[in-house]
Amino acid sequence: MDVDDLAGLLSLPNLARDLESIEERLDASIQHGNPELVDPSLRVIHGGGKRLRPVLTLAAAVAGGGVIDDNVLQGAAALELVHVGSLVHDDIIDNAATRRGVTTINAKEGSEHAILVGDFLLSAAGRICAAISQEAAATLADAISSLCIGQSLETSTINDPSRSLDSYYRSIDGKTAALVRASCRLGAQAARVEATTTDALGEFGTAFGMAFQIVDDILDLTSTSAKLGKPAGNDLREGVYTLPLLLLFGRDETWRDSLPAAAQDEGTLAALVEQTRESGVIDDAAQIAYDHVSRAEDALGALPSSEQREGLIKLPRWYVDQTLA
Ligand code: GRG
After folding, report:
1. pLDDT digit string (tens) for 91-133?
2. 151 CB within 6 A, ligand 1
3. Is 46 helix (H, G, I), strand (E, B) or coil?
4. What are phi and psi of 102, to 5 degrees?
5. Residue in 105, 53, 61 with CA at minimum distance from that of residue 79
6. Gap from CA of 263 to ligand 1 centroid (Å)
7. Alpha carbon nearest to ligand 1 atom 8, residue
8. What is the tens place of the pLDDT at every residue in 175-216?
9. How close is the Cα of 154 to the center of ligand 1, in Å?
């Protein structure tokens, strides 16, 4: 995501400067640690993430009628720390060797150390939110709790050929949408906007987060390893059955029978991936992502009109369009 494009879309002319300030705050938030924790933390913080969540925190604060002050910038940094910390833990769970093309902490320093680094990043986020307000701290805690619930729901259905759509939706609501929701709510709370506006921004974030994860799951089946920075088809290889596959099973249950073989054999896996591409379920999954985009747009309908509200309304469709293009 190009910062100038985003600044124009969201009517946030100082976005590049604010993001630089967030980079400094990210670095400052972990400096109290020892090099064993600080060095890998810095590596993962600066691993090339898009900074989507901090951008949402800033945009939500202004679209809600507030201004970007010290508290909002701190809140934005806290959300990114939770995101990065959750990626560190996720890579341990997945035993991933690379993320965004960079060697993971579990691969380089070992899983035991990566657990500590992830916890260290989460604690830095908690410390920041505690200094903003009690409700900001509660928003952060709720998000972390939802991440754990969503991930554990996913883990409990790994290699489960009978995984349901409902289980999938509940899992992605927790593991992804909750942090996008928190990014928007925290921006609103740090800027001290009205509670009804905070709730509307939270609904926007939830719907955008659902679309965001569905698009991520589509890309895992349609993109290349080079573009993803991790092996393509990885979800299926790991036994995580996502929306396009579940839609395929909805059309023809017998595809579920090939799952045990796909876990063992790259040829069967490739055939299953090919079938999702040929059967039209990728388009169906994209349509469901766009339904969430529409829900996100509607959620901001009651906010006072402003250029920034219009910009935030446009963001989910812009993101999904350009990511699936
Ligand atoms: C204790 C916080 C904590 C978490 C434990 C591991 C876990 C529970 C949850 C996993 C959550 C997770 C990794 C969800 C995936 C979300 C997702 C789509 C991440 C990719 O987001 P991008 O594309 O990443 O914004 P970049 O690389 O741009 O930062």
Report:
1. 999 899 988 888 999 999 999 999 999 999 999 999 999 999 9
2. yes
3. coil
4. -110, 145
5. 53
6. 23
7. 148
8. 999 999 999 999 999 999 999 999 999 999 999 999 999 999
9. 13
